[in-house]
Amino acid sequence: MRDLVKDYIGYLQVEKGLSVNTVNSYLRDLKSLDKYALGVGKELGWLTKDDLLGWIKKLTLEGAATSSMARRISSVKGFYRYLLREGLGKTYPHADLISHTVERKLPAFLEGNEVDALISIPNLKTHMGRRDRAIIELLYATGIRVSELVNLRVHDVSMERALLLCQGKGSKQRYIPLGRSVLISLREYLNVRHILLEEKDSDVLFIRKKGERISRQYIWSSLRRYAERAGLGRVSPHSLRHTFASHLIQRGADSRAVQALLGHSDLATTQIYTHISNEHLTKTLEQFHPRMKVEKRK
């Protein structure tokens, strides 16, 4: 769980763009909750609703100001909301505290032309540009999490079989088919990967100079820069995961097939994309159907 806290803090810094002071406040709040969890003999992921109320009561008795408590509760909600987005919320019995917020906020996703624009930005005349193009293509073509991408090994990609072996949460493995476009980008990157290694030895698929493993934060910041150059809003690895799933559902893919591709343990997590698809269809009808804007008869 402490690794997840670290990932969440990185998410706040890079993707949300929060200030250093705000991020430090969130970190202090989570450390406070973690300390309380240890005091009751539990991990953060095993706290119940009553445990959370106990933590709040303890802070209140210690004289915490109302404004401070509001921020601390917000910090905790944000953390568990992040876990839900990552597909880990199923295990939390207190998820009802935040589920209504999560359900109202549907994930953002890109349109097809926006994906094309983003993919076209990296400079293929440079080794890093080829690598970044392959990263963006792979995120969109497979819907894998950024944490899964940074842990990929060269042998996880089978160019001959057009398959990717992905190590998901809980060490669960899944195979994801690879399409022609992403295979071309991966092949172009692999042709120059040895140059980035600079005679170092590493089996990590995506690397920086001298064979250093590429980080989640680097991918977040790179995507943000490319999105700005493409004239798009804020784009993150999770945006591409949402886009992958949304485009499949929009085109009639079975929810259980999408569940398997995303590595979701619970179908309910996948079904949010059905709502996105319905919303997209409604907007399409309102925009193009001649009678959708006719007022309803009383």
The gist of it:
This protein has helices at residues 2-14, 20-39, 49-61, 66-85, 96-104, 112-119, 127-142, 146-150, 180-190, 193-197, 216-229, 237-250, 255-262, 267-270, 272-288, and strands at 157-158, 163-167, 173-177. The chain has 298 residues and is mainly α. A hairpin with a 5-residue loop joins β2 and β3.
Q: What proportion of the residues is helical, as a percent range?
A: 55-70%
- Could you tell me the number of beta strands? 3
What is the CA-atom radius of gyration, in angstroms?
21 Å
Shape: globular
Strand order of the largest sheet: 1-2-3
List the secondary-structure elements in sequence, H or E. Answer: HHHHHHHHEEEHHHHHHH
Q: Quickly count the helices.
A: 15
Blueprint (SSEs and pairs):
Blueprint: H1 2-14, H2 20-39, H3 49-61, H4 66-85, H5 96-104, H6 112-119, H7 127-142, H8 146-150, E1 157-158, E2 163-167, E3 173-177, H9 180-190, H10 193-197, H11 216-229, H12 237-250, H13 255-262, H14 267-270, H15 272-288
Helix pairs in contact: 1-2, 1-11, 2-4, 4-5, 7-9, 7-12, 12-15
Features of this protein?
298 residues; three-stranded antiparallel beta sheet; 15 helices; 59% helix; 4% strand; globular
Walkthrough of the structure:
With about 300 residues, the protein is mainly alpha-helical. About 60% of the residues lie in helices and about 5% in strands. The chain contains 15 helices and 3 strands. The chain has helices at about 1-15, 20-40, 50-60, 65-85, 95-105, 110-120, 125-140, 145-150, 180-190, 195, 215-230, 235-250, 255-260, 265-270, 270-290; strands at about 155-160, 165, 175. The protein has a 3-stranded antiparallel β-sheet with strand order 1-2-3, with no helix packed on it. A hairpin with a 5-residue loop joins strand 2 and strand 3 (about 175). Helix 1 (about 1-15) packs antiparallel against helix 2 (about 20-40).
